[in-house]
Amino acid sequence: MEGVVDFLSDLGLSVEFRGDFFDFLSLGAGEMAELESLLRRARVFDIERPVDFHGASASSEPFEKELYDAFWVQRIFSRFFLGKHPGELAKNVFHAVITGRLLGTYGSRRYHARVIISGFPSFISTSGLVEGPARPREYYFLKAEFVRSGRDLAELDEAFRGKFIDYGDERITKIAGMYVLQPLLYNFSGKEFCENSKCTLFNSHWQKEVLDIQYPGSLCAECGGEIEKIAKGQ
Ligand SMILES: [Zn+2]
Known about the structure:
45% of the residues lie in helices and 10% in strands. By secondary structure, the chain is mostly helical. The chain has one domain (2-132, 165-231): Collagenase (Catalytic Domain), CATH 3.40.390. The strands form two sheets. Strands 1-3-4 form a three-stranded mixed sheet. A three-stranded mixed sheet has the order 2-6-5. β5 (116-117) and β6 form a beta hairpin. It starts with a helix and ends with a helix. The mean pLDDT is 93. The protein binds zinc ion (ZN).
């Protein structure tokens, strides 16, 4: 978090790190139990079906990965957030939560892992960085081959090491900082992504793009100007 805060501060933005989000919410035992029960309802059970939040609680095993419906998670947290800090929405500020939880949105008949969810609050998911952008095409071909022949997938990951972001990857800090800028820009200017494939606000779909574009982290002149305006409060 220190690295992310430093990166944003270096861009001239005024940043306040408020510590652990749960500590910041300081929920009582009853509220905590309610929050946990709501989060369980937001969990994805079937990757090909949208979460039925108000339906009967699912009896089947959830999807192998701990994946949550991003919009339900956002709604749940925004309710608790505003319940505890009602003045926050009126301030001319932007709120970002950096989380290790895996968040997905439903579209084209299945859930897709997301790196960012814009809104109040915005989320940047470090697990989404690993699971969202696609790995090299050859990786998937070889993976199918490995699964067929019963070989250890760790061997495959080893062969592709460095070509995609993995859990515990030290590059995540810098890349997470870059990704805070996307919902931030959207919040203040309505601009979602940048078309310039050299700009860190480009909408990357591949791991290679994230490593080539977000990791070096340069802003195009136009986006740099926008961020500067936001920093000056204009
Ligand atoms: Zn740009």
